[in-house]
Every structure is written in structure tokens, then in C-alpha cells.
Amino acid sequence: MRKEIVLITGANGEMGHGLIAHLGETKKYSIVAMDVQPLDDSLRPYCERFIQGDILDLMLLGRLVSEFEIRTIYHLASILSTKAEYNPETAHRVNVEGTLNLLRLAVEQSSWQGRPVKFIYPSSIAAYGLPSVAAKEKAGKVKEADWCQPITMYGVNKLYCEHLGRYYTTNYRQLAADHNKFTVDFRSIRFPGLVSSVTIPTGGTSDYGPEMLHHAAQGIPYSCFVRPDSRLPFMVMPDAIKSLLMLEAVSREKLTQLVYNVTSFSPTALDFYNQVKNAFPKAVVTFEPDMARQAIVDSWPADVDDSMAARDWTWKPDYNEKRAFDEYLIPSIKARYS
Length: 338
Ligand code: SER
Known about the structure:
It is a single chain. By secondary structure, the chain is of the alpha/beta class. It has a domain at about 80-195 and about 235-265 and about 300-320: Rossmann fold (3-Layer(aba) Sandwich). Helix content is about 45%, strand content about 15%. It has twelve helices and 13 strands. Helix 1 (about 15-25) crosses helix 8 (about 235-250). It is globular and about 60 Å long. The chain binds serine. Serine (SER) binds near residues 81, 193 and 205.
């Protein structure tokens, strides 16, 4: 008998930390975690097994298939938007070929098990691309089907992998006689910028928010790389984890689409600064926009419409801006760095 497990890639990343700690606490799942870096010590107790390795390593993935019965895959590993621009082809390999490898693994598992494996995939607001700041201001809350012309390699990769997931779910090998039998059950969320009190993101373009906060909490000056009026949707990590788990749990029949927006609040960089300054009056923050990164932020929506997630799986965030800072970020970051 192979052991039933939940596979989490990108275990050491921001979402990996949040998800593993949360699932681990429930003690309901056997978690097999994967990452190219060694796993953070704080996560080890929650994992049945940690595999240090690359999602591009087919031998490694093959061994996983033979050893475990994988019920759900949370495929979190990815190279984020800023880092991806420094080496777009490497980003494509990790973000697209890596995802393809895991989808193939999921199909293989599904056919072994005679039931579809759930494949939970975090996509991003980077899948959108608005052509100008004026268009961004006018667009307001963007719906899933609108403005899908991403300008970054990361955004292009995310959008394409959403399509791949849909293909594997509904049309995989559609000309084969036995097609449609055991395909995967792909579900995806387009996340806004994420902020955690525990970890700092690396290589993203929404990083100015969390970086400002974590710098201030440590008394380190911070130079913000976007204009004060730049607006993006954000969400705190507990809400992000909640949304992943809600989407995983909902029954398939309720889903009218495979990709959903979620969001909670949409501060400008100045709003972020005001919250930070309020909590850490000695914080030193300057605004020195980097034109290239600014252009990426300007191409992402100021807000997204998450009414489909609300309708199909009763999504609702727990944290608005005030609660996010007053009840989660500030107290927990103060405790962390004190
Ligand atoms: N936070 C990501 C980034 O900045 C977007 O999903 O790349």
C-alpha cells in the first residue's frame, strides 16, 4: 500500500511556509514537501518527508509517483516577476516546464488511483496586463476574462499554465479512445500581492509592501521602488491560505470556472507607508521609483473582481486593511523582531 499524501512544491517559499504550518497544525494530512533549498527547520515537524530537489528532475518526480499515493498537489514553486525578467528563459523552464511535469505526474497518479488528483495552482494578478495608467484607473475591479495581456515572463507563464491546467482537466489526449477517464482536477487562484508577518518575498514586484513593513520593524531605512500613488490589490497570508483551502475543499460541481480572482484590500504605496509609519513612527522610508519595476506595477490592476469566488465557493476575506495591519501584521511582526 502506498501512503496517501499531500504534495507541496516550493515548500520553502512564502506560501509554502503559510500552507505547511497551517495544514501541519491540523494533523489531518501527511505532507510531502519539495524545494530546491533545504527546508526551514520550523517546517520540518509538519512534514512526513522533505525532498530537496528540482521540479525539472523527472527521475525524482518518477520516484515520488512510485512511492506515494498523492491526493492533492499544491504546486507553489515559481520564479516571481522581477527575478524572472533577469533570466526569462530559466523562468520559463521552471514556471512552465516545471508545471507541465507536475501535471503529467498528476495524470499518472489519477490513472493509478482511478480518480482525479486535485491540482491547486496559485496564479497571479501578473496574468493581467493593462496598457497604461489611465486604462488601469478606468478599469476598476478587473474580471478574470479581461485584460489578459501580461507584460512579464512570469505573468505570461502563469496565464499559460492556467490554460495548461484547463487542458489537462478537460481535453487531455482528447483523441484517445479512453480520454477523459482519469484526468486531473485543476483549480487556480489569481493572487494579489501577499504580505506575511513571518517571511519576506524574494524576486517579486509587489515586494515593496512587505519589504517596507519588515524594514521598518527592524529599524532599517527603506527606499520604495514605486511612486506613492501606485495602487495594487494585496492580501495577508492567513487569507491567502484560507482561499487555497476553500478552493481545494469545494465540490467540483460548484465550480463554474477553473481560475478565480481573490482579494481583500487595495492600498496605494502611500497608504502602505502611512500604516507602517503609524505602527513604527521612527521608520525611514523614501520613494525612489525604479522605472522598469514601476511599469510592471502600472500594468497590474488596481483592484480585481472576486465575485465569482464569492458566488461559487463563498469566498470572503477575513482581513480588510485595518484588521490586516492592526490585528495580524503589526502585532505579529513586533513580536517577531523584538
Ligand atoms: N507577488 C508576485 C510578484 O510580485 C505577483 O504574483 O511577482
